[in-house]
Structures
1.
Amino acid sequence: MATPLPNPPPQGGRERTERGAIVDTLKVRDANDVEQAVRAAIASDQPLEIIGHGSKRLIGQPMATNALLDLSALNAVTSYEPNELIITVQAGAPLADVKSLIDSRNQHFAFEPVDTTLLMGTPGGGTVGGMIGAGLAGPRRIQAGGARDHLLGAHAVSGFGDGFKAGGRVVKNVTGYDLCKLLAGSWGTLAVMTEVTLKVMPRPESGRTLVLRGLSDVIANRAMTTALGSPFDVSGAAHIPNSVFRDAGGGLGEFLGDLGSPREAVTLLRLEGITASAAHRAAALAKVLSPFGTAEILEDAASVAIWSSVREVEPFAAKGALGAWPVWRIVCPPACGGALGEALARDTGGDVIYDWGGGLIWAALPPKADAQAALVRPRVDAVGGHAMLLRASDQVRRDVDVFHPPKAGVAALSERVRLGFDPKSILNRGRMSRGSAA
Amino acid sequence: MTIMMPPPDQVVLDRREAIVAALRAIVPGEGVIDSPAEMLPYESDGLMAYRQPPMVVVLPDTTEQVSQILKYCLAQGIKVVPRGSGTSLSGGALPLADAVLLGLGKFKRIREIDFDNRVVVTEPGVTNLAISQAVAHAGFYYAPDPSSQIACSIGGNVAENSGGVHCLKYGMTTNNVLGCEIVLMSGEILRIGGKSAESGGYDLMGIITGSEGLLGVITEVTVRILQRPETARALMVGFAEVEAAGECVARIIGAGIIPGGMEMMDKPAIHAAEAFVHAGYPLDVEALLIIELDGPGVEVDELIRRVEAIAQGCGSTTCQISNSETERNLFWAGRKAAFPAVGRISPDYLCMDGTIPRGALPQALARIRELSKKYDLRVANVFHAGDGNLHPLILYDANQPGEMERAEAFGADILRACVELGGVLTGEHGVGIEKRDLMGEMFSEIDLNQQQRLKCAFDAQGLLNPGKVFPTLHRCAELGRMHVHGGKLAFPEIPRF
């Protein structure tokens, strides 16, 4: 069922950026336009900033670009085949529209893409291309994988100005190198995706969330480890320390605000599936977790709402009480999370929220010239994790490595890989590495 | 041999003795094999129609040795073919006459089991099944389960991005591997990823997985382990028409049910399997589905009911439901033994591995039937029906002149049909040499050039496993050159710059 939307006429224009500079914009109509634009950019050495809705423009190293390649007009759904569990859409398709389309067939993107609107305070819900380029997966990553696990195929234009195809339109495919894995999470620095094929999955019929109260970060981490080591197929494991409820205060939405009203830490464990199964597993897991306290059980709508707050990092919302603080996204071995996060919060006076059973820490830390990078990075290195400075002022992002600097060998290999896609650094120049911003 | 391999480098062959001596200096004792008789087991992998003795076999047992071997080979311009257990069905580990065959069989140790982080850190020569066995006492297992799991190594699984009957629900190797230690052709040792859910920066683990030994030599792997589901039960459903079985598969998925495994066999495969293992398969059906549901008992019972109703709605003629582990294993026994079962009824067989959209199953089967007539060769079909992965087994006799060539042409036509129907050349066995020359059916030259530029980032001299995956070899300098369109770089009609 193809529902192509009419293409608007080609538009060029000028626009004022967040940083106040005036830049050229090029609104492309099709993949051919993208090829032409990239080739022209190569010829004139004009690096391009690639945008859809611009919802994630404030994420990454400030770029050395002075022209915009706007993909928002590439917004058609090419095909949607629910029985094949795939959907093919143009990269500029609005994520919200695509989500509601697949929702109408009781399907979803199982990796729960993170909508950063609340966290970044930027307008626009984002596009499918942006979702893949950022590769930010929500709570269900522990069970269903990330964006990289759901991108089956793509058409893209490389920094050579060549349109190429990666992957295919079936779920099982090992033909050639899996270039899709590289495109997911590459923040537009390798190629401009013009069309993507994504895996969709049946939406769970029902959900239950166990709520444990009053646990310290380290004990909560242990409770989550126990839950994830059980056979009950936990699809979300998060912990919100009590200080978050105190510091974020009235900025919290209805569900999270209510949940934290006694201002106690809450540990959340989600079970999804057919109703009988979710209910059975919730009860069984509550029994296994009884040494950690008595669990309350939230059902369906309340369960869905609470995970939306966790996924979108609501306590650290840009418009909330902690909106002025820089926010780190730290990924680490899950069993290390509690100790790492507790120490970070204690030593900086900041706040942390745990997802992925401790494997993902969102940290809002009091402002400092380096956003506390000198403290955060060595500690994260020590446990074999990585820390991305997701939210910070323009100036701080200029001075600090936004993405965790890899070890020399991996950094050099990554750079060779990038140059294999974009030898002239035309695409989102400098977004992922301070070194390549020149 | 109908596939051309890169011509041997006579300069390298002339220096064989010196090369063997240099390798012995790196790997002392019995780790270097150069006598023709002892090299015999290495001259082929699971694609046994192709054989080629290597120049020399080296079996290091430390990462440092691997690094020194590769460094030496790079300096001397010597090709290297990595090998795990040698079970590849696409010729990924086929030796080259002028290459060092680098076997990882001595990397047999599981280095760490970390239940809290739900990972196992293992050397690449450990078998797939041994990982599950090592964690079984705590209720864990490693999910991807290729049929060769008793023998195939985890390093080979990473190289091939192996699947198995349960990957419909639990994913392929790429969805279950978190990190590795890899040695590049330069000898540089890198750690990619680790125990975290994802690594920062580009997803290098994602690109290494399934790279068929062309990017580096893996010396350690970190895999995710899962708790075994509480219970699993299987249905065995027969249909009088293949189309009805295909429809049943589509409706199950359409109803939002993702079974642990969903396999289909056609009549010749059913008969061969039944004659071999006596699993009680119905012999009067055209297609048999084995559908496994796993999870808590309450969920499995409910889903069994739903699937049974769907099957009836699609006109199933027989339906058995397992009531014990013994019975469930019996249902699977025939499917898991399908390849050897077919081996009993034909001197040789060729196993194909295309993937198609599920909905195209009946069309694909009809095409295979036509081609079977055209080439006058029998075919038995087994499929991972849930994910549209076909394994047609083409029966032939290599002793009959011309029959192998006919079987290969038949196989190539099946794969072309898969691509035409919207699918791909290989679902889980890899390209290797087997499908190398068909890559153009699926990818344009530009697509393939982009893939080969990635190879250049890892192995600029093209010394690791050359002649596999890509139909043509390019120099990296040539691939890195900016394309010039029509004599000059094109300008867009929209004059913004």
2.
Amino acid sequence: MRMLEFKKVTKSFDGPEGKVTALDGVSLSVRPGEFLAVRGPSGCGKTTLLLTAGGLLRPNAGQVNLDGNDPYALGPETRSKMRARMIGFVFQQFHLIPYLTVRQNILAPSLALPAKGAGQRAQELVSHFGLDDRAGHVPSQLSTGQRQRTALARALLNKPKIILADEPTGNLDEGNADIVFGYLSQYVAEGGCVLLVTHDVRTAAHATRTLQMVDGRLIE
Amino acid sequence: MKIWHILVKEILHRWRSFALGIFAVIVAVGSLTGALTLLKVHDLHTQKILTEKEEETEKKMAILKDEMRKATLKLKFNLLILPKQQSIRDLHIKGYPSEYMPEEYVTRLANSGIITVRHFLPSLQQRIKWPEKNRTITLVGARGEVPNLYKDPRKPLVQPVPQGTIVLGYGLHYSLGLQVGDKVKLLGREFTVHKCYEERGSKDDFTAWIHLRQAQELLDKEGLINAILALECICQGVEGLLEKIRTEIEQILPGTQVIEKGTKALARAEARVKVGQEAKAAVERERRHRTQMRSEREFFAAVLVPLVMVACAVWVGLLAFNNVRDRKTEIGIQRAIGFRARQIMFLFLTKFLVMGLLGGALGIFVGLGFGRWLGLTLEEDIGGIAAGELFNPGLLFLVLIIAPVLTVISGWIPTMIAIRQDPAEALREE
């Protein structure tokens, strides 16, 4: 069973210097329990791959399947619900909401997908990620490692089937990067799957499979 | 956590922008309320000025009216009704009428329905020798006023001389050493001095007044009189009045003639009417002046208020655009974690709604205070007007509906931009 599948997906943009092809006939699949790392230099199309996988960027051609459904065949509202239910996002810049506390940031996805016990789950995640003493702090009062752990906890609140991570360790030191990889690996071990895009060569040590991306194309 | 937690937290996080938005709404609502309050202060002041002027005019008119009554009395009477055969030349030479007419004429006149004359005073006058005192005097027999039955009763202007009494002019009582209560004989009949007049400097100083009936007996002119004095002929409208009264009286009493007495009273009456007309014209002029002033202020408000409101709406719109730009990534991540478009819309529009409500509520009081202050400054001598007098609950209700609606409209386009923005674009830019 494939959690995520790309079939000859192409995505291009009109740039100031003409058309830019960010994804050029990309095909890939990610299974539950798999930690797939896509490595490549900046501008090779990694973030486009991730956003397309997350139902946020409609491809020009090809097909995307998420848990057997094409997210782009759904209406915007249904696609939003699907994202809330199935996907957890982690970004290099963390993208925490600046005026919410750690606990509130972790709880934010519950507003998109209300569920009983969200508060308790958030508290468990706060403890799990070692953020108890920072639960009432806003992001500007946190270290970069704490911010990324908060972002990771937020991504896990709704128990997603896949985590899409864009350079999650890009702003972290080695220690914090190892902690984040440790949590991701644990998530995969518990049956989740991760698609991670990065330029960091150290990722290979944590991923179950690594692909190289060059000019919008994937190379095994 | 509920979605309004995010709303409140965001407002508190960007409180400066929110405060600027509220300020814009306060300015917009304040200018509207201020203009309306200013006009209300103007109206109250106008009402006060006109009421004062009208009261002042009424007082002045009452004083003039009273003065007129007194003047009419002092100047004797307005009209003298004489037998037709009476020579006016003889009247002026002798100082009293020498022809006679029936006393019944006065009753006929009083019952005739004539409305231009209020009272009638019949009299019998004759120059006689006062043998007991060896003086020549004018003897006047008077019976008091006969009221016009077709007019409202009024206090009599002349008190009647009671029977058996005599009223003496200054020249007589002074030279004869008589006082009120003294007994005196006239043509063989005894009278008690009822009143002694002060010096008037006229033939009255050598006149004695007794009751008409007794005068008729003493002069052997029973049932006859030789003059009827018409009192308070002048009531309203002077122009052509004399001619009107004259015609009216001559129709009722064909054997009589009417001459004018007391021209000064007529002049005063004319002046009184003119003063009254002038006072009314002054009130009218003030009313027109105030109306014009109000129109000017209304015009000024009609131009300025919409301009201020549009400027404030643009201001709120720009703040909203800025807010959307600042929150581009935030909106992107909210969309990425599954927030639906209507939730984003709720976050923005509710913020504008709250902004409009708060700004509207504060603006109405700011406008009320400012309008009151400006009104009191522009309208001198108005004194204090309680704010409660200017407060309009209907306006508050209207503003609390209109201000949020307009604020939401101002923020509508930026909100639409926010919900339509591509989250991927925002996240890729980062």
3.
Amino acid sequence: MHHKDFRKSKKGQVEYLLQNAFRIGFLIIALLAFFLMISYYINNQIDASYLQSQTLLNRILYSDTIMQQDLTTGRIYTGVIDMDKFSNPTVLDDGIDYGQYQRHVAAKLKLLNKEFNPKDQFVADVYLNKDLFVNLQTVINSGGTGKSSGTMYISQYPVTYFGFDNKYHYGTLVVEIIVPNS
Amino acid sequence: MGKVRRFNKRGQEDKLYFLIWEMIALAAVILVILIAVRGVVNGSSYWKKYYSSDLALMSDLANTNRGDFTINYALKSQGDNYWSKIYLISNKMFEISMESDAVKVYDAPKEDSKSFYTFPFAKNKDVVVQENSVISDFIVLSKSGSIMSIGEYGLSKSSDCNSMQPMDTRADMALININSFSTDAKTNLFSDSISAILKNHNINNEMANGSDIIMAYSKDASFTIYYSLDQKNLLSKKLACLVAREYSLDPRFASNAVDIKPYDGFLDNNKAYADYMSREFGDKEFWIVILLSDNELVKRNIDRNQFAQVVKNAVVKYYG
């Protein structure tokens, strides 16, 4: 049989189709694998949650939000808690205002008296975005993950505070910060 | 049959066609891959996320401190190298918008941007954010007094005074008590006003070991503030800079220029002044001399109480 006639015959077309179908199929699989590898290895995500928590921590520790401040010079005494401020439950929301973006971060500050033995004694606590903190803390404690959960960062610092008994006390400031997952 | 085809001319022609089609298919695959990679590289979402979070977190920290600061922020240069030219990767420009509670980053111009990223920051209640948008690969984020703003490179020189920190305990004690003197009758009242306002703020306790703000007069010298050569800590230089800055930023004084110079033993080339300074302040380390001329005292007729307010503001900011 002449080869020209063979290509025109139905048998020849089927043979060509089978050969090319395998080739094209393999090519599609290889291309898909390549695209998947590109998208897998390209990092397009930025996780700034730890940085967010540290930024908020710095705002709390080094600003005049809860720390004592000399009103004449404006100097802030880092590590000395002003109890007049700390006893105000909205002090953090007033001083660290995220405006319309309230789902950005939440925090709880807990002040303990270090002089009380055998265990530190609770003095006071104050929240930033209390509703968000309570909700996310519940989800985190129950092992929830994903976008409805968050990451909690806990740290503690030795502080001094002027108690309502008009005496300075040594204390521990426990800072719990929750950054919602994005 | 195949063996027969390989030896005739028509069979060789078929093989050539087959190779050509294979090459075309290969070229098509490479082209598709390059287009896909170029699409990923040309995507701007990563950088929009990066710049919005980076700038917003810095803005957040700017609201912590009472002091002033300036950050010169260079955006990563993209699309301007050998490979980017070969692959036709465009140079990405972003429009960065500072709002009262967030930084937003768009593809420039904002109107043509398909998407944008927002990262919030917490504003201090005493800080006013000047809302502004900038298209540049070099931006300046600054907080001066209670004003926070974003702009292109080119802040005025008077906008920032170097933050000079005390190095030891002795230096830490300097400039806590500030006395004000005058070298002559022309500036006596200025000196009295400064003393009074500092006393009201418990900064002037008339202590012997205090630091000094000395008012001096020259008929036609330019307005200059000299600072003592405490070069180890540069505390006097910082105070001189703050006074000059507060003065030039005060709208009541219409941005009058002020020179700042280290004191080199001469004041306006006046020997009487030099002797006076040597006699009265030779042993002291921390002081500044504010030299006013007829331009300020007569022509501009500067109010001494307003000027004292400027000095007081500078002293208060010294501690910021």
4.
Amino acid sequence: MKKLSISVILIAVFASITIAQSNSVYTRAGIGDLEFGYSAKMVGIGNIGTTQLDPDHLLVTNPASWSALSRTRIEFGIGYRGTLISDNQQSNYTSETEFKGVTFGIPISREYGVGAVMGLVPYSRISYSAEKYYPKDDIIPAYKLFYEGKGGLSKIFIGSSFFLPLGFSAGVTLDYYFGNQDYSTTINFDDPRYISTKYEDIRRSTGFGTTLGLISSNLAREFGINGISDLRVGFTYNFVGNLDTDSIFTQTSLSLVDTVTNTKADMKIPARITGGISFALEEEYNFYLDFLFQPMSQYSFNNQPDGNLKDAIKYNANFEYKPKRQAGMTTLEQIIWRFGLSYEQTQYTFNGQDINQYSAYGGLSYPLGIDNTIDFAVEYSNKGTTDNNLLHENAIKIYLGLSFGELWFLRYDK
Amino acid sequence: MIKNISLVFLSAISIFFIVSCNDSPTDLGTKFLSQDGVEVLKLDSSIDTINQTSYSFKNVFPLGASSQLLLGKAENITSNVLLKFVFAIPDSIKEQLALRNLTVIDSYVEMFRNYSFGDSNAAFDYAAYKVNEQWSSSSFTADSFAFLDYDNSMDLSFNRTTANDTVYSFHLDTTLTSSWLQNYVDTSVASNYGILLSPTDNTQKVLGFTAFNTTAENDPRLRIVVQKPGAYIDTLIGFVSSDISVVLGDIPNVGTENIVVQSSLTSEAKLIFDFSVVPEDVVINLATLTLTVDTLASKTGSSFSNRISVYLLDDSASNKLNTDFVYTLDRRGATFTGDITNILRAWNNRVDNQGLLIKSTLEFWGLETFVLKGSNAPLIEQRPRLEIVYSRGKNN
């Protein structure tokens, strides 16, 4: 209980902290960069992990994974992201650190695989800033336009897992999506006599969705495959209902705020599908192959599609070394190691060219006693190209997370 | 253990935040933000079609609050002065006055010049007349003058300073000043409504004198020399209690192509631009008004403020001003130019456009006559020029 209290305090301290912008202006399209995970553990496995049944962490991709939950658990993550954005002429380094999310899970019935989990995790992220200078001409004085985008979508979810016949696990969540997408442009004139003005388009979205997940039983055992200690397939379907969005366009100069338009519109976010297969050798060496698909070409806001969006597809190949627990192991021997590669056809397309991303990532979980870990992950990604006047991003992500587990609701025999 | 780990974790987080540094924003990728662009546009009444009208009119005010008294004749102006004095006399003298033991042997007024309008070497003379009725410097105007009861049959002044000097004085008929002293002792036996100073017909300039002021420095001062036969001679001082200039005249004829503003008379001008040419839902970033001066027709005095004030009219019919919006145009060569952005922003934010009122900045000081090119000036570039730089977001 004390550990959970400390966790809550840590979360309260950092929950509202966000610094600077770290992404490119590509995040202006649609709802920005899609976020798939929130914790160091998830970054270490490529942010998907459709088939993972991990009793020591709370994964949010597949609610069926909570059937393995054995302890009351709270987990959260904080991440640093630094990005070197380049075009043919110049580069610019930006970075930010932010609280990524928190989850809390309770195992209700191990016999039936019932685990209840709730949490707050990111769904998309908009984060850019740019500035352009317009020199004086015969008519118009010199000025700068400062562009800034921030915000995104988050979701609060509550869900549960349960066993199905044949050893399958299933899970379902109720998701509430919310968030602001704030796009602003500020005009600043060189001549101080001119009044600067900030134009701001704020979209406030809310709506519900659900996630359904399925993880198979150990197929290696079912089919009697020798040499493979664990073989599973998994599948998730994440549906997002149309989000009610208030769109407010204001112009602010001096202290005068003028609301130019105030409209309501529907934001349609296509469903996200993941699939995966995993196998383990000698119960220690785990291999995961994951696939994610989200047809963002069907995204629309106020029934208007975004011409810079296409379908997002991601492939992961991950390895995790999870030593079998044995008596007398040193702490170092208990460390869980992860490594993976991914290729992502992002949802962006600019100047007729798709924006793709390659990533390599790795991480570890350092044990803090039996049920707790401190998690660390690093991801390097290479996104886009400078060809065709496009932007290239070299990004490094460093994530820290804590996962505290504790046995609650013990029943003692008298 | 948990405590130690928490400390390590907090330290790591702190390092994360500390290293979250950024280069200054660049223009990387701004070409992909066209939907968030801002248009900056300009309207210029000398280039674009913005309908405008302007005209001058006389707007008479009481000039009692002015720090200056104007006396003389020049150009279109005849300016008179009303003065009234009060006394602060010791009781011993007051007793003698009551007993009528004192004789006024001389009385004179001194005024300090601070301004001249017209040819400084031109003739200047004036007369002093007894006023027979009460008047107030806070309400008396040029329009009241025709109804003023004063004795214009006898000039009560003599030994007047008429040549150029710093201090101007004139002596007053002692019968008049004696009556004022009697009025001081007993208001029932005599009156004291002051005097009217009027320029003589041959006067061809207007001089300005320091008026009543709170420091009593250089204000008009009456000195009355009294004698108690066989005993003493003393000088009593009359302090100005009310004073006002009464500036008479028509606004100068400047033709239909010009407008004119003149201090003290007072001539003002209205200028109305058709603001509907400015699109809705834009932000006015800067608006400047430029008025072209007819330098030959304009007349100024020995010292003046070379500036013009622009007001937002609340009600054009009653000339009611919105005093939240007052701006000054400074002289630059043959123009007055200034920033009137907030007036345009007010119109842009649904304040009714009743036009602009243009005045001399020191409207109650001097007789400066600024002749400005109006909306009917044959050369478009000489007409009142309104330049508006405005911006609008692409969402508009």
